[in-house]
Amino acid sequence: MSACIDCHCHISAEDFDKDVEEVIECSKKAGLLALLAVAEHSGEFEKIISLSQRFPGFIFPCLGVHPVQEVSPGHQRGASPQDLDGALPIIEKYKDQLVAIGEVGLDFTPRYVSSETDKENQRLVLIRQAQIAKELDLPLNVHSRSAGRPTIHLLKEQGVEKALLHAFDGKPSVAMEGVKAGYFFSIPPSIIRSEQVRNEPKNIHISAEYISKIKGVSVEKVMELTTQNALRLFPKMKLSSNSD
């Protein structure tokens, strides 16, 4: 079985609390070499670090503030600079363990932004985290829903050279701007809009199979090249010699 890496995974979500060991075991059986665990807010930073220590050489931590923050169940808003207050000290504390800063980015979905001020607040949050990533020599794990062009332009303006754009929904011409800047793009299983009950790492084969059909290459080739890309973009990810 070909091996692969999940470069964007919310393994710290409450949905996995009861059976995370089973999820990890299923991931390994599905051929995964590693998971990059991304954060959305500072409240889950310690949990992600704990998971990376519980599954060393398989779960790798990425800490960052997502452009959409949950205020209460079902109520979300765009991120603001104040959301960084609790995050930055923890990033500093664990900086030597991180493989990336993320999940960061912009999200201009109308229900999250009602004014130009809201958009500017998100930009400020992303700019600060881009600066931190450069200071720590880490790549960014980036969200850009309904904001593909502004996100890529901001990354380029900030001199970001290493970035993964997750589930990019912008135009192909905009994506090519990112490609020319040296950025990578990850394709989630949701690309086929399946009715899967749960989004978990073992489903990565869905993405690989879809890409293989579009590109006209084997699934094995897709997994080989994307794994090479992941290891190149996230060089601080040191895989376990034995993932069983």
Written description of the protein model:
The structure is a single chain. With 244 residues, this protein is α/β, with parallel strands linked by helices. Helix 2 links the parallel strand 2 and strand 3. The strands form 2 sheets. The protein has a 7-stranded parallel β-sheet with strand order 1-2-3-6-7-8-9. Strands 4-5 form a two-stranded antiparallel ribbon. The protein is globular and about 45 Å long. It is built from 8 helices and 9 strands. Helix 7 crosses helix 8. The longest helix is centred in the middle third of the chain and has 21 residues. Helix content is 39%, strand content 18%.
For the largest beta-sheet, the strand count, sense and barrel status come to:
7 strands, parallel
Mean pLDDT: 94
Strand order of the largest sheet: 1-2-3-6-7-8-9
Q: Please report the number of helical segments.
A: 8
Distance between the termini: 14 Å
* Shape, per Cα inertia axes: globular
